[in-house]
Design a protein that fits this description.
By secondary structure, this protein is mostly beta strands. It contains one helix and six strands. The protein has a six-stranded antiparallel beta barrel.
Length: about 100
């Protein structure tokens, strides 16, 4: 299977992105109780909890990233990713299989 990338968005609603580093591991969890998005996937860090969400809008998905809707059925209830690019508009990660 080819590499699957996703964008973390909403970082400024939590802790920002200044502390993030390339190759850090992030933890994905399907947010089944999200009243706004039935395909929401939260992005979490050990010790902090939720730091954002997998982008699910054409305006927030960067580059060749999968949207949360595309990613939702490709992962179990929980998965992991590694940070690859830290940009002003979001953080691009690679899904870890």
């Amino acid at each position: 299977m080819s590499n699957i990338y996703f964008t973390i968005t909403g970082l400024n609603h939590y802790y920002g992105n200044e502390f993030l580093e390339k190759e850090m591991v992030v933890y994905l969890k399907k947010d089944k109780d999200n009243e706004y998005d039935k395909e929401a996937i939260s992005v979490n860090l050990a010790g902090l909890g939720k730091i954002g969400y997998v982008a699910n809008s054409p305006y927030t998905v960067l580059g060749e990233s999968y949207s949360a809707g595309r990613l939702y059925d490709k992962i179990e209830d929980e998965a992991q990713g590694k940070i690859k690019f830290i940009l002003d508009k979001g953080v691009v990660c690679e899904l870890v299989e």
